[in-house]
Amino acid sequence: MSSFSPHNHSACVSSAMRAAEAICARNKAKLTPVRKRVFEILLETHTAMGAYDILNRLADEGGKPQPPVVYRALEFLTAQGLVHKIEHLNAFVACADAETDHHPAFMICKSCNSVAEAQIAIAPAALRDQALASGFAIEQTVVEARGLCPKCQTAS
Question: What sign results for the dihedral spanned by CA atoms 47, 50, 56, 59?
Fold first, then answer.
């Protein structure tokens, strides 16, 4: 489901938290209170957030976190497949389907920075063919499309 589509956000968050707990238990990885809170902050909206945005949210809640704490939490969440880095924005977004092995593509609203995740093949066919022809082994493909979400299109 695209985050641009109307949906029950509270069910979306609950489902993602259950998935995170199950994934961490399966991987014998500890979802510490800080890691959990960083994940919850990312789940609150479908908007990409930078590490310092998350740091500010934690500080607003009365904590005194240091940047390394947030970066380590994001690194952990990314390694567990719970969070994706949006390269163009140097920001992070909660994974829409962490329990499924997938190759996401991101639709990023250039106005409000909301992000929707879509599923794609490992690499677009043309890139895969060129890589194969040149002997290059693709390990990761990041696809990011920028445009306007439905809400921002209506507003303009």
Answer: positive
